[in-house]
Amino acid sequence: MKPVNAVPVPNQCTFRSSVDITQVRFEWGELAVTLTSGGDRKVVIAKFDEVVGFRVLEEGDLLEFWPVCSSDNGWLFQVLENGWFDLEAIRSGFLREKGLGISEYFIASQNSCISVLSGGVPSIEFLSI
Description:
Layout: E1 5-8, E2 20-27, E3 30-37, E4 42-48, E5 51-57, E6 76-81, H1 84-89, E7 103-108, E8 113-118, E9 123-128
Antiparallel strand pairs: 1-6, 2-3, 3-4, 4-9, 5-8, 6-7, 7-8
């Protein structure tokens, strides 16, 4: 597999210390991912509408995403090519095609990472703890 081509998704939240995914909730096609940074005393909730699929893996099993999707570059990325979507697209049973309104996003954290296939742009909520 070729290296992942991804860009950070601009948002108002940056973290100075490590961030962990603390909750993943999927209801009625909406995925909500909660990230917590105790050192920064911040909680961020990324919400995705029109979710086609998502996967949660430990970062050690996603080496093709590094270093472009490392915490030095942010925590939320849009994957342009060579990500999970392209990996699924080589399977004969995967019927979705690129260019049909599905985007791939990647959330990086210290404990796990999430790939999301979504028809919508994520919204971000910020909370202080």
